[in-house]
Amino acid sequence: MTWDWNAVSDFMPYFWHGLLVTLQVVALGSLLSFSLGLVWALLMRVPSRWVRWPVGVVTEFVRDTPLLVQLFFLFYVLPEWGVTFSALTTGVFAIGLHYSTYTMQVYRAGIEAVPVGQWEAATALSLPRRRTWTAVILPQALRRVIPALGNYVISMLKDTPMLMVITVLEMLGRARLFSQQNFQFTEPLTVIGVAFIVLSYLASLLLRALERRLVR
């Protein structure tokens, strides 16, 4: 077997398109998971069990079922109930929802790590509850959890190939399409493997730099 550089050259247009879709899914999925995870974490601190119990059931169900099953359900079952979204929208929502149940735990740990004295100081200053959260608790909690949240971005990146099952052609989907059309598998799959390694490594470097900056 010989390496065919012409195949690599032919594959690159497919690759760039797939890379754009992959980065789009990761960016939007991260935004959704971070936002929704914070909402879950705050709702779990509401005194009423009528709020905590449903949130706990939903998040536990999502966390304990495979992402692949959730993708199939959202894309193939919901349309039978009249709820239809594009494949890309479904993929972003599925990944964002799935990982929000993990980021929720990160937020909860960050909030619980805020020293009790900070809560007591806010109470002593008679700060409103909303002001206590926005000015005292959340800024300290977020600073602690950003590196951990970044790790889930890398996990989302590595899970994007699952979106092939709902017809989203990200990097691996484009490689598969090219391979089927040209009967060349080694070159496109190798390029995709290297691309995932490079993207994951760059993301880890950014996380380390961010973590060092936050520790200062």
Automatic annotation (TrEMBL):
Origin superkingdom: Bacteria
Location within or outside the cell: Cell membrane
GO biological process: amino acid transport
Domain ABC transmembrane type-1: start-end pairs: 19-207
Keywords, sorted A to Z: Amino-acid transport, Cell membrane, Membrane, Transmembrane, Transmembrane helix, Transport
Membrane-crossing segments per the record: 20-43, 81-99, 189-210
SUPFAM superfamilies, per database record: MetI-like
Presence of the UniProt keyword Chaperone in the record: no
Recorded GO CC terms: ATP-binding cassette (ABC) transporter complex
NCBIfam families attached to this UniProt entry: ectoine_ehuD (TIGR03003), HEQRo_perm_3TM (TIGR01726)
Protein name: Ectoine/hydroxyectoine ABC transporter permease subunit EhuD
Species name: Streptomyces bauhiniae
Phylogenetic lineage: Bacteria, Bacillati, Actinomycetota, Actinomycetes, Kitasatosporales
